[in-house]
Please model this.
Amino acid sequence: FSPSHAETETRLYHNIIEVTSTHCTSNGGVFSSLLIFWKFALVAAGCYFSYVTRNLSSKLVESKRMFAAINQIACVSVLTGLVMFAGVNMHVKVMFLALGVVICVVGSTMLVMLPKILHKGDV
Model:
């Protein structure tokens, strides 16, 4: 390992085993910024496409549920992002991130699939 910001740490666990770990740090946020921009672009594109398809015929009524699901994901992502950039400790950040992912996944799945399950016999 020879990066410019490599840090090596040795810890003794339970007075039995000694573990040496090396990790790298970086002061640049270019990759993180690009990743956040890419995620924002995907959510914005989803919101745009769901908005454009909102007035389709009743045969494609699922597009309205998709619109609601994508907007729910966008709102939860913004709220989670605000907590991520706030000055709170890491445990709170991880908890809010996990909670945001669970709400997005379960909420969007329920918004799209629950009406199909409830109206299964109305075909």
Notes: The chain has a mean pLDDT of 79. The first strand starts at residue 6 and ends at 13. The chain has one domain: 35-122.
